[in-house]
Amino acid sequence: MDRYAKTKLAGILGIVGNIFLLIIKGIIGFITNSQAMIADAANSAGDIFASLMTFIGNKIASEPKDETHNMGHGKAEYIFSMFISISMIVIALKLLFDSVMSLINQNAFEFSWFLVIVCIVTIVVKLSLYLYTSKLAKGLGNLLLEANKKDHRNDCIITTFTLISVLLSLVNIYWFDGVVGIGISIWIFYTGLKIFIESFNVLMDKSLDEESKKEIIEILNKYPEIKKYNHLNTSPVGYKYLISITIFVDGNLSTYESHEIADKLENDLDKLDFVYLAIVHVNPINLENIENK
Questions:
Q1: pTM surpassing 0.85?
Q2: CA 261 → CA 30, 222, 231, 241, distances in Å?
Q3: Which of 138, 179, 196, 238 has its CA 20 to 30 A from that of 247?
Q4: Domain limits at 53?
């Protein structure tokens, strides 16, 4: 199964699972007036949107390059990841306001064992989705899958605190419910902001990380024919990078020989997992001038 098929499956499972959780959380949350459960239900609504964006973004990103998009459609992953992050930030701010007001007004809620059951069901469903999505995401470098994986993990933690607030209401401790609502909103905001920054960096053509650049340099150093190099530029194309570099070889080599070196280097760079396309420019250099300096 390729990365796009895996992401599609993760999106479908996320939509189905979160619709189920939204329904049971929303019904029980509003019946009992639990702010933490209502916040959890709103989080599930955001999760449905996130899974839908994953599905649509993945479908567009999987389209091959064409006449109007010569580098493919890979950046759709990051555009739709940004949509997910913005929705998370908006939901978080609304939940933060509601939770603070609930704490100020000292709102109480009606305890129900259904609240406990919903929390346990949510934890089981989300933990299962997290483990499965983690398995799918392993080694793919797909931001959409990573966003979904982190979202499922966060939901497990969030609902665990919701469960604690519900159980504390048995001994008439209700303030913790508002605190959990605030904690949930802050967590959602932080996660959304982190995804936004990652997506923004790619869409703004942030260059390759230093560790990956070292891998490129290690390959360059294996070529004794390359006397020096410069203009190592990288630009993201979806989840991979376009690599452009200028190399200098002995000016006494024939045009065919010098370009053969460039072709071999391009082939070696293309084998790297993070390289979408390598473009090597070759220039002649006067070795006598270098040796005389």
A1: no
A2: 69, 12, 17, 21
A3: 238
A4: 3-203
